[in-house]
Amino acid sequence: MTTARPTARRSMLTGVSSRARLIRRAEGRDAGAIGEIYDEAIASGVATFARGPHDAGERTSWLAARGDRAPVWVLDDHGDVLAWSALAPFSHRSWYDGVAEYTVYVADDARGQGVGRTMLDHLVDEAPALGYWKLVGMILEGNDAGLALATGRGFRQVGTHNAHGRVGDDWRDVTVVELHLEERP
Ligand SMILES: CC(C)(COP(=O)(O)OP(=O)(O)OC[C@H]1O[C@@H](n2cnc3c(N)ncnc32)[C@H](O)[C@@H]1OP(=O)(O)O)[C@@H](O)C(=O)NCCC(=O)NCCS
Description:
This protein has five helices and seven strands; from the N terminus they run αβααβββαβαββ. By secondary structure, the chain is an alpha+beta fold. It has a single domain (16-180), classed as Aminopeptidase, CATH 3.40.630.30. Helix 2 crosses helix 3. The longest helix is centred in the first third of the chain and has 14 residues, at 31-44. The mean pLDDT is 92. The chain binds coenzyme A. Coenzyme A binds next to strand 4, helix 4, strand 5 and helix 5. The site of coenzyme A has 22 residues, from strand 4, helix 4, strand 5 and helix 5.
């Protein structure tokens, strides 16, 4: 059975340390909430090239198809999923095995409270145990929050792909950000 997020509720989250303890691996019952948060962000037009809607059934299949090195986490505030995050291999090429693309999505009404930062810190902490040495993010043109989240955590702006994809009929640039998780040799 899956659960959707309740509407019109506010996070009662307090400190950063208590917030981090609310992160757990996503389960099938989170599929509805994950899809709802994803679709909220898609509606903004700047978060992703993905198109919705993502209902519980579609997200359940998505969760089930992910491999060991493509985990999904949620921040579960006493039964209310406020955010989700994920890692996925950056490339199918074996020599890029240590590079992961990260994803962080926070519910509209839980933003601006440090939840995104908590989720990204958690990914940075978890990634090395999964064999990743670098995280890469793809930030669409106009996604000021996504870029601020990454650069505020120390990600470097690698550069910008010109007209890398389309949202509807509109071309969008994509800025690549990266964080190396090991010291350089
Ligand atoms: C990006 C996102 C995850 C940020 O989540 P959040 O919980 O609001 O972020 P936080 O409150 O933790 O703030 C993180 C940083 O972003 C900055 N920020 C947040 N919203 C911002 C905005 N709209 N414009 C500019 N900066 C913003 C904060 O000031 C903070 O900066 P700091 O680290 O220098 O203090 C959220 O806006 C979201 O889910 N967007 C849709 C999905 C997406 O674009 N994900 C990123 C690419 S995977």
